[in-house]
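Key idea: predict the complex, not the pieces.
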Amino acid sequence: MASRDDFFDVSKASVRRSMVLFASGAVIGLLIAGYGLFTAKGTRSRGVPAEAVALVNQRQILRSDFMTQTQSQFAVPFEQSTRAQRMETIEAMIDEELMMQRGLEIDLPSYDPEVRNALVAGVELEVTADVLAQQPTPDELRGYYEQYKDRYSSEGVMQLRDLLSTSPADAPKAVEALRRGHALDAVIKQYGLVDSGRLMDAGHVDTGDIFQFAVRAKLDDALYAAASALRDGDISTPITLSDGVHLIVMIHHRWPVPQSFDVASNRVWSDFKKEAQAKVRAANLAYLHSRADIIVSPEYAH
Amino acid sequence: MLHSMLALIVIGALAAVLGGWISLRTKTNELLRREPDRLLGDAQMLQLADRLARPLYQVHCAVCHGRAFQGDPARGVPDLAKHAWLYGNNPVDVEHTILYGIRSGHPKARNLTDMPALVRSGQISAAEGRDVVEFLQGLAGNPYDEQASLRGRSIYYDKGNCYDCHANDARGVTDYGTPALIGPVYLYGGDRQTLYQSILDGRHGQCPAWVKVLSPVQIRALALYLVSATRASAN
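Result:
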């Protein structure tokens, strides 16, 4: 039989010590497990945590949200609100939580376009929230302006013709004649030139002023590049494309006027924010794609 | 005998730690469950809030709000020591601001209003902006240009729509979080150039949301600490 002193003498074996340590370990383990069980997220609990005013299917309605809601709903400081007002707020918040949970339960976002759009917009807002909230400094804006200065100018206007030569061999002759100052209509008739049909307005060839962005949208890149370099009365060299040989005749070209930073500052600010948002949105989508299991039908697979 | 004593001491210490923890948890729960306004009258609870919040304030808040709550006019951080509470100093409102922030990007953040760049956006001209500044100087009891102030007055109440957010008396509105424009405490400064700069470029002060960083009890303690400590410093 081990004596009482053996309990504390670690050099000697003691059944009692072993049992006490075993029991202590078990009790401490149970306490830790119990604490974790009743406080961990997702654990069912019968009690309402101190920070919450209600639990709806184990989801908390935060006390602070409840107080703010009561204040804004009844336009009184919380301490002056009546018990009836508070009960009304709690009931309304519980109802809202129940409806929201029901919406998720029946998978409302998967088939209701409005909920779906709201959800997508909400997630986008959440993702870009930091960018939206962050205000660029004047130095950042000026740096952005300097980097993309060519974007900030008044819109140019062109009055021009895009002609197609029916006889490609005659195209250089037509250019030569126009450059010598022959009348446009006479040259068109003499060398069999026709309008390409790219600069149309309501079914007719547009011979009036056209904004430069519209010219860019209507003409081929090569044609626009040639047109944007022409001054009043200039004729381009013949440009061969798949539909024939083109000649650009610039009647009048009002060039874009660069805007100073002060004049363009609002556009700079908005472009800066849009670009930052687009970057964050693209990064988020790339991340979502990377962790998603997406299978595309073979005919549309990359 | 010595060993028995040691065991008792260890057991006693463990019991004390456990008891202390249970007691603290009970008190922190009480801190959350009781109405914030009533807690302001409870010295014991305020002491607990102070103990919990003071180190948090120094770590998370003092970098902008200053160690003595003095704020930072360069960044538009209000001087809480002089009671420049943009959204009021009711503990419920303060707690909401700490939880979700101001223009923090959190959907529940305070962002009902934003000072627009009135001159940059072309809503009013630069000269009209300067006239509004003269009008505000007059309201604040400073020397001002009378003619410019008269013109500024009509901009303030009409074309500029300033009164809509800053109130008819230019003392600001806590519902919107708009600051007083006639002092005695200014958000960004009360000199002519600073006031004009606000009208020219607008202002977009921010406060981060702490809802995912601090626990509910820490946030409640911070709200109480801020309200009680700044009241004490004002007194």
